[in-house]
Amino acid sequence: MLKENEDLQLEVSARVRVLSEALPYMQQFAGRTVVVKYGGAAMKDSTLKDKVMRDIVFLSCVGVRPVLVHGGGPEINTWLGKLGIEPQFKNGLRVTDGDTMEVVEMVLVGRVNKEIVSLINTAGGKAIGLCGKDGNLICARPQGDEGIGFVGEVSSVDTEILQSLVNSGYIPVVSSVAADETGQAYNINADTVAGELAAALGAEKLILLTDTAGILQDYKDPSTLIYKLDIQQARSLIEKGVVAGGMIPKVNCCVRSLAQGVRAAHIIDGRMPHALLLEIFTDSGIGSMIVASEFMS
Question: Is the pTM of the predicted complex or chain greater than 0.85?
Fold first, then answer.
């Protein structure tokens, strides 16, 4: 019994230390907007999924204003298969013809988005599901590459609907489907959408949940994680080939958002339970943070 009491006391003391360490960050970020791009393993694993939703609700409860952006590539592939449509990719982009675009919109807006909204609500939050079409939130334009169909990029952002929701205490959940001025729907990369929304909202932070520890000096060695770097260093890592493959568009997305006024951009490992809280509310963090040069000190 004595040993059990000692263990319980140690556990309680650890929780108190965590809360004490988190308090200055809660005070610093209260009332600030944080845009989170949700994807990867954190979106597929049910246990991780629940933890991410609880983290989002926690942020909202302590005064942070979270905006969640999501994609849903694996779910799209599953439904394409059910409908007998073969997924195709070109230069890393999903070839999105008319039939595929219908499936993308159905899955992202009608299924994945509403599942996330339901999970947040069940965890005690107040979530509202949106896509780029709602309230003219995002105006899209063709991405430009030939042979990829209705793959788009962000032309403009109107944050009025997001501002109304976060000011009323709601958590917006945004899927990466938008339309051009004629109403034609486009599939847009969710990282890109998150970065552009963060910039338009003047967010304190942009956080990308990924399936890697962050930016690594040696991609084979997690111990080479780079915890903090500025825009110039990030660009240099791309030029040197240290940042390569699928990490390039993520880093470019972060750099673009910082250049438009976002205070900090984070690439973190969404496979780690409570990754969001560990990154935002602890001194060390767990992933890579990119900032403008003036904030490197």
Answer: yes
Domain holding 164: CATH number?
A: 3.40.1160.10
- Domain hosting residue 229, numbered range: 29-295
In a domain, 216, yes or no: yes
* Of 158, 162, 135, 136, nearest in space to 66 by CA: 162
Inside any domain, residue 12: no
| 8 lies in some domain | no
Q: For the range 73-81, what are the long-range contacts, defined as Cβ-Cβ under 8 Å and sequence gap of 24 or more?
A: 73/39, 74/43, 74/44, 75/107, 75/111, 75/112, 76/103, 76/104, 76/107, 76/108, 79/103, 79/106, 79/107
Q: Do residues 149 and 108 touch, judged by C-beta distance below 8 A?
A: no
Number of folded domains in the chain? 1
Q: Are strands 127-131 and 93-94 parallel, antiparallel or unpaired?
A: unpaired
Structure tokens at 106: 């159905």
In a domain, 24, yes or no: no
The DSSP secondary structure of 142-169, one letter per residue, reads: E---TT-BSEEEEEEE--HHHHHHHHTT
pLDDT tens digits along 208-233? 999 999 999 988 888 999 999 999 99
Q: What's the CA dihedral at 236, 256, 252, 163 to 10 degrees?
A: 150
**SS3 of 268, please?**
strand
